[in-house]
Amino acid sequence: MDRVVLCMKWGTLYGPDYVNVLYSAVRRNLTGDFRFVCLTDDPAGIRDEVECHPIPDIGLKHENWYHGAWPKIAVFLPDLYGLTGRALFIDLDMIICGPLDEFFTYDQGLVTIDEGVWNGTPPSTMTSIFAFDLGQMGYLVDRIRADRDAICAKYDIEQNYLHGEVERIGYWPHDWLVSFKRHLRQPLLIDRFKQPKWPEPGVKIIVFHGRPRPMDLIRPGGGNRDLFPHCVPGQVDWARDYWLENGGRL
After folding, report:
1. Predicted structure pTM score
2. What keywords appear on the UniProt entry (predicted)?
3. 29-65 pLDDT, tens per residue?
4. I want to staple 161 with a disulfide (CB 3.0 to 4.6 A). Which of 58, 137, 155, 211 is the partner?
5. Measured between alpha carbons, how far apart are the two ends of the chain, in Å?
């Protein structure tokens, strides 16, 4: 089985270092051969080991690029630059902290994060990291092309679209991933004096969704890195070390 790690970068929110650090962390945590592919509107500064391709045009409007991450749906094209096999899509603002091999063999079809477990709600799909079989879900692109405005209005963001339109979705084991905001932040008031926790052994990925983002914890200097009333009062040691060990720049 071919293994492909996919990421996507457009606009200016995430620079090339995010792609380079993610590649390095994946290489450290995934055994054997794989292809690492970045779909991007600007490949400048991305390391040579990463295969860069333009983000395919699936008929989105400008606003669809900046609300809802709808360009991600392009990975489901029947032919995505000739890629075959099992794909693992990873958002750029993840921190890899454990082995990744099992992400390619766990379950079948589309497998995503169940955000409902973190929120105490029924299962809901989060697309920060998901696996699927390349070329097997082209209907998702076809439906966007046929009725883009109605679909975007109905679902608002792309992960709701997957949740509503894919007949069967699998979810990662809950102990493989943690949310920075849900699991690693210190409690209010304590967070003013104590750094966020490093995950327990066995966790494979730290998921960042919304703010703060990894760079908020990594950049030098003082000031609150989180959103009030939460507080991260300065650079986080483990986040900085991860960034530098994987070739990131400060």
Report:
1. 0.96
2. Transferase
3. 999 999 999 999 999 999 999 999 999 999 999 999 9
4. 155
5. 37
